[in-house]
Amino acid sequence: MIQTASIRIATREIFRSDRHSSVILLSAAALGLILANSQLAGAALAVKFHPLAVAPLGIDLTLGGWVADALLVVFFFIVAAELKNELTLGQLNTPRKAAVPLIGAVFGVAGPAVLYLVIGGGTAVEGWPIPTATDIAFALGLLAVFGRGLPSNLRVFLLALAVLDDLIGIILIAVLFSNDVNGAALAAAALLVVCFAVLARRLGRSPVAIGTLLGGLAVLCWYAVLQSGVHATLTGVALGLALPVRWGLSAAHHLQPWSNAIVLPLFAFSAALVPIPQLDELSPVFLALAVALPVGKAVGITIGGLLGGLLARRTGAARIEFGDLIAIAVTGGLGFTVALLMNQLAFAGQPQLMDQGALGVLTGSALSLLLGAALLHWRARVHRARGAGQGTAESGSGALATHESVAAGDAPAHG
Question: Which stretches are annotated as coiled coil (predicted)?
């Protein structure tokens, strides 16, 4: 019994690791791409697009739709919980602290968007938000694997940069990809979020109450958002921000292994089920995304980081060396999960462009991965060689990794 419990705990910790989760994500995407270009392609795509509608409730989703519109809510909930922690108790809890990564994030969004429009030459302009996203789990995983010896403030900067980047992405999803908004359903969802927040502060420490009442409200809220025409993954954002900080981190801590082991790999696998077209069939969308992610992100974040560095000198924040900034900026081109979601939303109803976009995202993210890994390894060696690696960019999950006691049930009723 004790041995079984130890194995279960060890397994959970493996799936909380940035390093291991990035390997699982990459493997799932590679498997999807391989299957989509094998003799099993027809069967794999048939499973992805198999209808799983719930007609009495007005839910018309395919199996792949359930992964993108329902399971992915868990990932966005975790992102929102960590974002709230950073904004209230963490590295972004004052305007001055948030300013430096915010400038980097804004330029990191603008750079690839502009480059996409320039390279695309006016083709499929609705795809410009796709390369603006950075995959938090993947980027931190790459840093954990290749960045041992780097100053610890780099992980904080990358985490803050990616979280703010995803916040911008969430806003873009809400503004650009909401169709025929149902005001009544949206109002019902907002009311349910308020009830969720109030109950979370009144239920005390009872895990049964949390699991039943809050879980039930979360499902109802997801259904209301789905019916409202706003993308359903925003449910996770709303609920993650509605919870008190320590409650949110506690819930996210429990959910993170499931997200890393099941939710994100399933989505990566599903989104990567893309047949590779012949070279003469590649559209400007593919080229624009394949270049905008590694180049646009690198240029945008570097410019934003340099501007933020001028502000850092005035605020006394830790300085980031230019070589380190370049390595982090290139790593920011790992769009992957959120970029693939953006691609599905931007080119909904245009399957050919969606396939080209997914292939572009995978190519651009792969280039960022290879170049980012090389630059991080180089910078880590430089810091180790001169004995500057006393504080290192360790593997972990930011705020979630430091909340073991919270996960054990120490979350207060207020916060």
Answer: none
Residue among 413, 90, 129, 79 nearest 238 (CA): 79
What is the rounded CA–CA span in Å between residue 375 and residue 369?
A: 10
Q: Decide: 397 and 139 in contact? Cβ < 8 Å.
A: no
Give 151's strand partners: 392
- pTM (2 d.p.): 0.76
**Rounded Cα distance, 401 and 135, in Å:** 18
Residue 95's pLDDT is: 77
Distance CA 386, CA 337 (A): 36
Token representation of residue 327:
């390595």
Averaged pLDDT of the chain:
82
The mean per-residue pLDDT over the stretch 51-58 comes to 90
**b/e map of 227-245 (b: 16 or more CB within 10 Å)?**
bbbbbbbbbbbbbbbbbbb
With contact defined as beta carbons under 8 Å apart, do 342 and 173 qualify? yes
Mean pLDDT over 274-284 rounds to 76
CA atoms within 13 A on the CB side of 108: 37
The residue extents of the domains of the chain are 20-177+231-390, 182-228
Taking the domain 20-177+231-390, which CATH number applies? 1.20.1530.10
Place of tokens 């981190």: 249
Rounded CA separation 166/133 (Å) = 6
Give the separation between CA 305 and CA 313, rounded to whole angstroms: 12
Question: Count of residues for the chain?
Answer: 415
Instruction: Give the residue among 24, 329, 355, 323 at the shortest CA–CA distance from 151.
Output: 323
pLDDT digits (tens, 9 = 90+) for 106-131: 999 999 999 999 998 777 888 999 99
Instruction: Please tell me the distance from the alpha carbon of residue 138 to that of residue 23, in angstroms, as a whole number.
Output: 8
Judge whether residue 181 has pLDDT over 90.
no
Q: pLDDT digit string (tens) for 342-373?
A: 898 889 888 888 889 988 998 999 999 999 99
Q: Rounded to an integer, what distance in angstroms lies between the CA atom of residue 337 and that of residue 179? A: 22
Instruction: Answer yes or no: are the C-beta atoms of 323 and 377 closer than 8 Å.
Output: no
Q: What span, in angstroms and rounded, lies between the C-alpha atoms of 357 and 131?
A: 10
Contact indicator for 269, 108 with CB cutoff of 8 Å: no
Residue 25 is encoded by which pair of tokens? 């994500």
